[in-house]
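Hi L.,

You mentioned the student needs an example of a multi-chain input paired with its predicted structure. This one should do, with 767 residues in total across all chains.
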Amino acid sequence: MATTKIGIIIAREFNERVRKKSFILTTILMPVLMIGLMVAPTLIMRYSKGETRHIAVIDRSDIIAPKLESGEEVIFEETDLDLEEARRDRTDLFGILWIGEDVMTNPSNVKLYTNGSSSIIVEESISGQIADIIEKEKLRAYDIDNLAQILEEVDTKVYMQVFRNDQTSGEGDDKQANSSVVATAAGFVLAMILYMFLLIYGSMVMQSVIEEKNNRVLEVVVSSVSPFQLMLGKILGIASVAVVQVLIWGVLICGVGAFVMPQLIPADMMGSVEAMQAGTLDPAVAGGDIEMVQMLATATDFGFVLQLFVYLLLYVVGGYLLYSAMFAAVGSAVDSVQDAQQLQTPITIPIILSIFVMMAVMKDPNSPLVFWFSLIPFTSPVVMMARIPCGIPTWEIILSLVLLYITFVAMVWLAAKIYRVGIFMYGKKPTFKELYKWVRYKY
Amino acid sequence: MDKNMILEVEHVSKRFARHTALDDVSLSIPRGSVYGLLGPNGAGKTTLIRIINRITAPDQGRVLFDGREIRPEDVYRIGYLPEERGLYKKMKVGEQAVFFARLKGLSRRDAVAGLKKWFVKFGIESWWDRKVDELSKGMAQKVQFIVTVLHEPELLIFDEPFSGFDPINANLLKEEILGLRDKGATVIFSTHNMSSVEEICDHITLINRSRNVLTGRVDEIRRRHGNNIFQVAYRGDRDLLDRALAGECEIMEHPEPELGAAYASLKIHVQDDARVRSVIGRINETVELRSFTELIPSMNDIFIRAVGGQLEEAQPVGNESSNS
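Structure written out for the whole complex:
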């Protein structure tokens, strides 16, 4: 009977929120926004071409100018004008490049006069070309045969493949480690999601309690259900909203990702990605950038993504339950959101603290500081979520989850004691001392 | 454990940090009665009602429902309309009513069927799909009342039910409450509106400063508080009557009859019941007696007399309680 009552409360809280326009909008728009943010830079890079810039070159050394190569963005035109005339007359051009006579010995004697704002990309491509030309000229002065060929042979790049020795599976297959770049980024994003959920959904519980109190609907409800059932039903009802939102986001992001990713990644690279996931990639034949391949392999590894997703749900729910119980207690004790500020502070401090600790995870996911904070229940959701993508021992995750859920149960018990007294208190804003007294009331 | 009593409160005490809300309060509520729970603001009425509704637990004492200790599932047999009442503003009226009905143990189908009937009865069926914050206060009160009685509880508890109602709706409400009583429900009725007490309550308990100071049937209480004061209407010689009654009883008021008035009137205090007959005889011999009525004090007088003496030193109400 008690459970059906909690069920009715949960259903009400859930329906009320899920039917709101704001919920539908944020649920659909958030992933679109996130994917947009990820995809936009690639698209912009691909489709945006800067305007062609014409640059007049005055080369006093006569070495550089003939070798400057015009490209899509910059077109070099040699000119016979001297600097004064060019600066005065050729204002129709993007700029005038002046190269000093002694540029071979004094490479800083290069000046660019522009008729407008310039950009780092343009400037770097000009200075880079000049540096290359000077370098080659200097090498040529040593008069070595087959120099170009020798240089090509000497040029070496190292691609290091990383394996997790502690996670080797039985059959002797080496487990390819996940890309650290992807792991760190994923950790950051997941921790931020956790942070958002704890604060937003936690204060949603608080506001809902305050609203019931102000509406005076509370006493009507608690004549049918116990205050504890009402509080628990409210917390669980809003939790189910959070879970639904996470699930919808997960499906949307995976779905859109699966559709968009192949469009953006060249086919031969995709082949390498699949080979790496299967563990059959021969680094020698891998096309081009093996780091990129590893990143993509990690990001599109279904097992990895699913695992993250399950942990995300566990921590969202656990962390939310813990914090919402505290928020509910605070909400019951005050009459308005303004009054809640002071009592709310000790709740928000650990959430904000965990964001700072998360920054430390970015540096080293296994430092003692990070380890302990990922076990302490108040900070563990955010900190642990940042660590998980880096691949940490499962026992640490399980221990932290167990601690989190035990603390949640204890916190609900404590919060309920404050709640059942607080909901009938109107007027005076209570102090912490009074809250403590309420906990000890016999009911 | 009287089987005629639907609810018995036995020696209930409830203390908050700095004040006592209830101090050894006992009362018995007969089945089928309309029971008034009276008392000034802060006396402990609301705390007592919350204890009956199992919202809070007493420090000492117990509550018996149907002759046995009250159980959690008994809330299905109780309907409670709190003084501080409200509805979820953003919810639709019908949906909300169904929600509350289901919390009282009705199935969704029974709830909808029952609610439709009540909505038609109160003429608010067109409000089913409107949001509560579009409703006027009176409308919301009607919805609230329906929600309280829908599950046909055996015990109904109304805390200041008429506050916020206009006279027409208050009358409608009173009729409904009496109608429910006629169908067999017991009604507890907390108020400090004394005229409504005389009209509809048959039993009362007066709580003042956390204690039960007066309890019993309304008519008995009024008679008990009557002080043998009588109103007499007559036609005849005023001075003659004064002389005839001298020594028999104390004349409290004997105004000159107004010009053209059909009767003169007189207010007397008779020392003891045994002399009432001889007083009547004297009056009858002297003048033409038209009426002889005992003046029974109103509940309002009794309330003020019972509470008044103690009010001067009434203790302040701490912030621990929102009693009213």
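You could point out the following to them. Chain A touches chain B at residues 1-2, 5, 8-9, 12, 16, 212, 215-227, 420, 424-428, 437, 442-443 (CB under 8 Å). DSSP finds 16 helices and four strands in chain A.

Best wishes,
N.
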